[in-house]
Input
Amino acid sequence: MRNKAVCNILINNFYILFELFIACNNYQSSWCSIQARPNLKYYGRGWFQLSYPCNYYNAGKALSLNLLDNPDLVSQSDKNAASTAIWYYLETGMNELAQQDNFGGTTRKLNEYECSGKAGHRFQAARVQTYHRVRKCFGLPEATNNLIC
Output
């Protein structure tokens, strides 16, 4: 079962990095009551490209770090980069989706835009092909269900 989770983490991390190069977005907006601090940018940082003030605030609270006031902390240490990714993975239920072989579901948790037919949609086929190759490296059978979000 761990191999499934590792495959999901590796592939989703690889493809989310492409977004950083495609779109220039400071991710200042928020869907919760947490507001961005002036002159700070909440773009993707860390293994899962943590974005938006709400996520920085909540991850920071869970990890005892003030990420809302210092979002660069995520990228300034490997420990913080990994810890925020693990926090996001558990907080959003990606672990359950990975154990159910729901690769498309884990992709949706990381990248709603890729799943909505908008900007990143064209990466989905390549992400799935890479997922198949990584599964093979881990000795897992080819996945046929729940690949597309």
User: Anything to note?
Assistant: The chain has one domain: 2-137. The domain at 2-137 is CATH 1.10.530.10 (Lysozyme). The mean pLDDT is 84. The first helix runs from residue 2 to 22.
